[in-house]
Amino acid sequence: MVKHQSAARRQDQILAAALACFARRGYFETRMDDIVRESGLSKGALYHHFASKEAVFMGLFRQFERAIWVGWQATESLNATAAIQRQGAIVLEQVFGIPGLIGAWIEFLRHPPSRARFTTIYARARRELAATIRAGVRAGEFRRCDSAALAATITALIEGLILQAMADPTFDAARHWRAAWKMLQQGVAAA
Length: 191
Known about the structure:
It is a single chain. With 191 residues, the chain is mainly α. The protein has one domain (7-188): Tetracycline Repressor, domain 2 (Orthogonal Bundle), CATH 1.10.357.10. Helix content is 77%, strand content 0%. It has nine helices and no strands. The N and C termini lie far apart (68 Å).
């Protein structure tokens, strides 16, 4: 007898299957039948939870986005220096910690609705980083600086590390993030 799983568990099952398919074949080459086969569910079950391949894809994107923001919220009790270091690490952990996500990440950037979503994510990340930087200035951790420019620089640094690791799987983005943030933080540290 097959036990019925909650809608959330079924959606997670479908999203995990889709991630594997998108990483293997790419978004444009993956068919809903591939996701059905990978998930072990019926086509009806898949369509019950997701109306289209694009809906599945955007579901993956929301899952990734949610994990980032939940992680960032957990840094609110840290001082600014530690919070920013941890926030960068969270992004890298999410990108590299989920098998197949790198392949999907590339597809996210090629897919117009998710690329548009990235625009809002980057804007939010820069706003939140800038707010953390301003809090660090007020607390005396950082010298006065253009918080928006520093937030954009931090965002670019993290993205650059991701791109390098995508090109060279031996590149340790997490190690380089720790070192780069330490150098950057020393540059803006209050005297």
